[in-house]
Model the fold of this input.
Amino acid sequence: MGGHPMTRRRLADAALAVVVGALVVTAAAFRADTTAVDYALIALGSAALACYREAPLAVLAVATSTGSAYVLHAHPGPLAALPVLGAVHTAARAGHRGLAAVASGVFLAAYVATGPATQDVVERTALLTGWFLCAVVTGLADRNWQAYLRQTEQRALEAERTREEAARRRAGEERLRIARELHDSLTHSISIVKLQAGVAAHLARKRGEEVPPALLAIQEASGEAMRELRSTLEVLRSDERAGSPALLVERACAAGLAAELTVTGEARPLSAAVDRAVYRIVQEALTNAVRHAGAARVSVGLDYGERELTVRVDDDGSADPARPPVPGTGLTGMRERVTVLGGTLQAAPRAQGGFSVLARLPSGGPG
Done:
């Protein structure tokens, strides 16, 4: 079983520092004049590499100062530059190419100052210059490659998000189109039924006959169905907001319903789809409260969380948990709106009496 990624990275960084230190110490051990001070400088400069991810500039400063001090004191071979090379590479990778170049120059100057400018010293210095140049260039190349990978990943995530949004939008548009066509055809059919029932009742009265109760029931039920369908169709055909939850509560109060609005959290602009969904949820919940709750108090709550918006509409009407209502067009439409946006909806009688609608919606920015 693998450990935590952070732990594995720390162990890898420590292993790198140990390997570099072991190489430089091994090379120093073959020199008879290596002192305890030299070993301490090697150990300190190599150990600093273990922290190159968290503090690349501090590692660069420690490795350069200890490396320069070591070459000035012991006059070692080119292998002594390994800790400084590693620090220069990581500094350039972190974007500090200027400081990496300065550190390279400082160490090379210290290396040249170890003795007279013999051909051997010049050749070693030229070799080290190439090494340091490669360290800076590879650090920059690695930085650019990481930036490219991050950019590619962001593009892929953005493309995926755009595809999902487009799919949700197309699904929502198709659902609305089908709903409109169904309601249009049903409205036409029900209006014919209502008209025929009305004509039959009128003719019966005109002939002085008693109107059959079934005929009156058909006339009344078709009228109620027409009102429900027209109300739903008005909602489905409206693409823009007709107001705000606050305005809805104000209208409900003016109509005689005891309603109040509570807003918690930091209110902020919402995407157009979420904004419309909130409006329609509150509208439908208040409409149901007027129709079915009787003389009740209604509380509307909007809670702006960090990542989601919670809409809650509670009434203390006559709904009974033992007899949950059959979901009608209104509740079904609310649930579909919330689901399309990736949210959740709970609508059921409360244990203490009355009815509760609870919707949780992802709160995006304005769109």
Summary: The two ends are 45 Å apart (CA to CA). Strands lie at 258-265, 297-304, 308-315, 344-349, 355-362. The chain is about 65% helix and 10% strand. The mean pLDDT is 79.
